[in-house]
Amino acid sequence: MMTDRMKLRPLSPLSLLSLPLALALSACGTLEKLPKVSMPKLPDMKVKVPFVGTDSTAPSDDPSLPFQLNQPLSAGHTLEIAAYAGQISPSKMFVGRVMVDESGLVDLGKYGTVKLGGLRLHEAVLPLESAFRRQRGQSLINVQVIRVEDLPLLSIRGAVKQPGIIQFVEGATPASVLRYAGGRTGDPTATAVYVTRNGQRAFHVNYLNSEIPLEPGDIVTFSDSL
Asked: Which of 103, 126, 159, 202 has its CB surrounded by the most CB atoms within 10 Å?
């Protein structure tokens, strides 16, 4: 027969609250007795970031020299240029920085060297185009002179009185740069203009349109008949 002492007493609320804590402490004690397993050392993973470079041949320590548009190129002057072959589907030949060396030569990488020392900037375009054409064998080569040193540039060609290269300024449009080329020539009713950028030649009906933004290196060609 079960006595009164053998009867189970109901747990008090305090005992019920302390029960989860006791179980947790018991579990912690059990975990502490588990053997420690050492994790294998993972090999060092060196992530290679792809280098997006250019065709530049100018040395990394190339000097910064003053440059003005009316002076000839000389040793140490650095040009940023882009050369493209073809017009309908132009292909990039060279994009990067080149420097005039002590002999007046510029290294175009696989396209050889060309002598630019002593030439004014607008005079340097033709020998650059000839150097690329000589190696590529393509008749239509566009060389865009983007900068010399830190001076951003634009090229103006076509039906103008003084074709050449001028300084680029923010907000420039074909209409605003025309006066630096002495004004238009050819058919006085012609208004068309072509803007060459990254080898692509875009046609615009009216150069007076203020919504034709220009960028450094653009070639702006005014039509003589359209």
From this structure: 159
pLDDT digits (tens, 9 = 90+) for 52-76: 459 999 998 888 999 999 999 999 9
What pLDDT is recorded for position 53? 59
Q: Are 160 and 222 in contact (CB under 8 A)?
A: yes
Q: Measured on CA atoms in the order 28, 30, 34, 39, is the torsion positive or negative?
A: negative
- Dihedral over alpha carbons 157, 162, 168, 171 (to 10 degrees): -80
The C-alpha atoms of residue 117 and residue 73 are separated, in whole angstroms, by: 5
Q: Where are the alpha helices (DSSP H) in the chain?
A: 13-32, 121-136, 174-177
Q: pTM to 2 decimals?
A: 0.75
**What is the residue type of 103?**
S
Tokens at 46, concatenated: 């060196």
Residue type, position 53, single letter? G
Q: What angle do CA 150, 156, 158 make, to 5 degrees?
A: 160
64 phi/psi in degrees, rounded to 5: -95, 115
Handedness of CA 144, 148, 150, 153 (dihedral sign): negative
- Closest by Cα among 173, 207, 177, 212 to 192: 207
State the burial class of residue 186 (Cβ atoms within 10 Å of its Cβ: 0-12, 13-18, 19+): middle
